[in-house]
Write a structure and sequence with these properties.
Distance between the termini: 61 Å
Mean pLDDT: 95
Number of helices: 14
Number of domains: 3
Low-confidence stretches: none
Strand order of the largest sheet: 2-1-5-4-3-6-7
Largest sheet: 7 strands, antiparallel
Strand content: 15-25%
Helix content: 25-40%
Number of strands: 22
Shape: globular
Length: about 575
Amino acid sequence: MTRIDPITAAVIQGGLENIAIEMGHKLMRMSYSSIIRESEDFGAALTDATGRQMCECKMSTPLQSGPIPGYVRNVLEVLEGRGDPIRPGDVIMHNDPYGGASHGPDVAFCVPVFHKDALIGWSVTTAHHLDIGALSPGSCGIVDAVDTYAEGLQFKAIKVYDRGEKNEAVWHILRANIRAQELVVGDMEAQIEAARIGAARFLALVEGYGIDDVYAAFEDLMDYSERLMRDAIRDLPDGDYTATTHLDGYLDDPDPSRHHLPLVVTLKVRGDNLTVDLTGTAPQLPDKPVNMPLVGTVDCAVWLTIRSILLDSAVYGPIPQNSGLTRPIEIVAPRGCMANPIFPAPVIARFCSGNQLADTVMKALAQAVPHQVSAGIGNLRVVAISGLNEGNHWVHMEIMEGSYGGRYGMDGMDAVDTLYANTRNNPVEDIESHIPLRVDRYELREDRVAPGEWRGGIGTIREFTFLDDAGFSLEGDGHAFKPWGFEGGAEGHVASLTLRGINGDERALPSKVPYCKVRAGERLISTGPCGGGYGIGFERDPEAVASDVADELIPAETALRDFGVVLVDGKVDHAATAAARA
């Protein structure tokens, strides 16, 4: 039974979503660093008083907005345990990776919303910060932390404003322990103001429609989202669907137990309920930070993948993004595995692990809905580049895109962030105008298309020259395992990483590079992975193959070898092609 008429509910939902979008735009425009301003690595959302998500900023990163309910629940738990009441004017900072945060550099600022002295909700922003005071400069690429204490400052429900009064001691601690403090603290202040704007807009919505109607609409909308998800799950055949993929691990480590780490997903469909069982996933690495927090990373990777595949926006249109979508889904992860590590196992480098887990969920779902998935994705990599300028740190973070596998009826997308990342690239002009780095190459790989009726997406080559002495840390994956092909499609292509010295000597690097010093004139060359193919290559439209040749993605020789297409002066010879394919 509905609690409110659907027209009013839709208007209120539109109001909630617009608040979250405004929060995101304000945060982007006020931020100092390119990772928020350009890459949009941030989140913005409203929740109710208990942490149930009401809406989120759709242009933000799923790995930022998705964890916000977990942040709020843990903040409430921590403050209750301390006996510290929540009051109007409070602003609470939180980044505990075992308390809802995806990892330490993703810092949330939570603003409680009060109406007639009652707590009615939360306005929250999250963002990835350039540095959080870890053992090496930057906040990504840290792949050798021994525990969470080595990953940087931990703020567990800390009031940076208490009843409207600024807690100056916390800000002194931040400035004294964070590199690139002006950028980082400036971004944090932008987050606070964006969250305050969201709180004010939410209160205005409540005062305009009344608290009862706003919450009646919210409950109905959650029920609606839940019904959509349950209907989609019910359409799946009951059964168990299992898939396994692997992470590189630490390929240069002498301990073989740190290589080729399995991620195992079993989807158990029972009516309109879905259990995601991660039993079989590799044990946690106690002193390497590729483990994934269950709340904040694993749950977001699972929910995002299932929602994107079963409730595709291209088919269903806009769907209210709220906690109702997750009600039918249960996640089971053995305690102590990589997907449910035990504190204080390090987790800061959970990015590629979680993205590969999302890919594994998709591989399992492919058995039930083969026309709704892509073949294996080419994973991403994240690099932190840093240096000193007259005693002051500069830090830059770059997310280097991957690629999608082929999809039913469509080729894989080239050179894009995949699955739960959803960030944008930094413009070359922005990079070169802010830090001593030159971008020499930024192009698609040639002749590395995974054959399929719908080909795999293509990764990029990025080449950077360091213009000053500096250092970098890098988290990546996909050097050891090719993205999976599907329905007869070929596997994709692995990634590589090379450091070229001033004298031209080249050194191959693994997919995970701890802090590495470089000199001016040295070059870092990143070759991204290419996604898997979907369907049999010899069934690909010959004109599509000719187009790939014309675009110089593949040569004519590859068109013949992998797709059976004969080209004469760039045009398809249909008779010769039929004979070659026969």
